[in-house]
Design goal:
Elements lengths: L32 H19 L13 H17 L11 H12 L6 E6 L4 E6 L3 E6 L4 E5 L13 E6 L3 E6 L4 E5 L13 E6 L4 E5 L4 E4 L14 E6 L3 E6 L4 E5 L13 E6 L3 E6 L4 E5 L13 E6 L3 E6 L4 E5 L13 E6 L3 E6 L4 E5 L14
Antiparallel strand pairs: 1-22, 2-3, 3-4, 5-6, 6-7, 8-9, 9-10, 11-12, 12-13, 14-15, 15-16, 17-18, 18-19, 20-21, 21-22
Length: 380
Amino acid sequence: MGGFKDAYGSPGRARISDPAAVAPLGGGTVNSTGGRDRMRQARARLIARLSRGSKPTPQVGPASAAGSHKARAGTALVLSAMRIPFTGSSVPLALVGALAVAAFGCAADSDPNPTTTGNTISTISAGHVHSCALDAEGRAVCWGANELGQADAPGGTYTAISAGYDHSCALDAEGRAVCWSWNDLGQTDAPGGTYTAISSRTNHSCALDAGGRAVCWGPNGWGQTDVPGGTYTAVSTGGLFSCALDAGGRAVCWGYNHSGQTGAPGGAYTAISAGEFHSCALDAEGRAVCWGDNYNGETDAPGGTYTAISAGVQHSCALDAGGRAVCWGANNSGQLDVPDGRYTVISAGGGHSCALTTEGRAVCWGANSFGQTDAPDFTG
């Protein structure tokens, strides 16, 4: 087993001294199948509770002030990397360690060489540890982590696709929302109807219908699916929040706001993207504007004008008018190291990024612990 990795296959900012030495809940060892199953179940239960708005029970024992501070800081970092909000309550350190090993896993090298497909695709989406794309015929293909079936795209033809954390969603040729994989919180229970846009992130998804109404589904513990009334032109799901652009180009965000990620600045925008704990948009002049958590510089958008923008977990990316990709924020797995080229679509994921070249080829780079940058050939 190598060094500690975060949930996105990157060298994690949340580290503990020796995750492998932490006994999983219920006993057993980290490498045993039973131990991994118990840790995965514990992680699922905690995420489910927090997604519904429940807080973990404080259980950290007495400690010195310095020790308590370090424990709380470590807990916050681990939970943050796992996309779990830290409310100030403590959780068992053994639980944090067990969850860290279960969710983050053992070390695996990031991919120093970006993967490029040899056949044309129409769009691409980078999820947390998997990626999805549509080929020129509208067929969905996903790759990377698939322990819950998030890469098992159903047959059919689609017009849009979005890779989330443990699930994926797409719009079929008739505009119906189709979602697949883990459904413990209703994240794949897409409501009936026809839609023009769709977005998936951690445990919920949103879509726009033909009349501009936004519909969201999945857990709602932080109000992430409580769409404000109005009509919208774009929608994007974040960690435990969502954002949209109204008919006047104003950014509207709702849900969890511990880092100011729903505090959209005033102005008119042409594009918006909700990340894990931050958000980004393009203003009317094409300038990138980001807000929310800036732990890794993910809201420090460089100057210039852009045509597309995408907020990931701890990094963000954009395309300039010439099709050049620019990324900023965390770079612990090379997710900012954009390969030379010209692109038409860009997507920032967990610890990796993907883009579509002007020739219609998929290019992915960054963390590759689960094969999330190994884009397959899109054969006809």
